[in-house]
Amino acid sequence: MNSEIVEGLQLMARDKGIDYETLVEALEAALLSAYKRLPNSEEFARVTFEDGVIRVYAQEIDEDDNLLREWDDTPKDFGRIAAQTAKQVLTQKIQAVERDQKYEEYQGREGDIVTGIVQQKDQRYTLLDLGKVEALMPQAEQVNYERYDQGARLKAFIVEVRKTAKGPQIVVSRTHPGLVMRLFELEVPEIADGIVEVKAIAREPGARTKIAVSSTDSNVDPVGACVGARGSRVRMIVNELRGEKVDIVPYADDLREFVAKALSPAEVKAVHVDEETLTATVVVPERQLSLAIGKEGQNAKLAARLTGWRVEIESDQPRPAPEAEVAPEAAAAAEAGSSETEPEAGGATEASAGDDTGDPQAEAEAPEAAAAAAEPAGTTDSAADGDAG
Length: 389
Prior knowledge:
Blueprint: H1 2-16, H2 20-36, E1 44-50, E2 53-61, E3 67-72, H3 78-106, E4 113-121, E5 125-129, E6 134-138, E7 153-164, E8 167-173, H4 177-187, H5 189-192, E9 196-204, E10 208-215, H6 222-227, H7 232-240, E11 245-250, H8 255-262, E12 270-274, E13 279-284, H9 289-293, H10 298-307, E14 310-315, H11 328-337, E15 348-351, H12 368-374, E16 380-381
Helix pairs in contact: 1-3, 2-3, 4-7, 8-10
């Protein structure tokens, strides 16, 4: 019977990748517990399992925990007890070791990207099968407009790895800016090699991302490297993000130049910087105002997050001053409609890093012709063909 236990331990050690001695120690601890439950067992004892032979040694210990004597006290039918105990205890030990191994595999991997298959989805979270373990994607880490159908394969960003009694709990995200960063590292070898550096990322999950890049090699265009031949690289990233637009802009040490590029695809005429208030006032052509602001202020907000400065956008056309005298008919009409009409906002819009509110003018969309004419050189919008490779 003991030889069967040895064979079972060796087989488990090979199949599960667990050290044989670890399993023997677990078995000895379980057999000691089983011995102490027997009638007339000694208070102090130890169990050995060597070469398939089980021995129980009773011990006499003094008040100072010194061993006075030790003798063999192995019960006659202990082999049968060992066989019954071994299966249950070893199964528990193997499960515990496997949980620890899985945790150690993912421990410290916060910030990595993983690929999983959607297993389950409800209002609270989505479960992804990563192979050996499952990952949890809470509702807050999901993109509002994305659908996660069962069986679908998708990439996610690891934000936390927790150790629990049931094994590691891996929390992943589809909204984290780090997901875009890792996708660019996978698709652009120059980033993985350190030739192209990602200086900053600002993201509105599901809608738009702006990423600022620079090159350590003067012969390598950082924007062109990220876009790829005929837009092949950025297109792969946009597909993985399920249509989210990606603006790739060149980083500049000069703040004025960087702010202007960050507002791509809008054309910028001038940038005025106030270092005391950390505000950049941007002047754009009147026809580019709504494009610079973006829908619901999105373009301005992302530019502010990307640069870390407050961004105010103004038209190059001054607003007409109010008339000193108003005709009676116009005054009556204005008074009648004052309760239903909001006063017209001024010609400037302000956005700051972390500001999630947009200007009412941002609701207006710029004509496609204006957007195409306004795209600055050196910037790439994934919504376009991406031919800037």
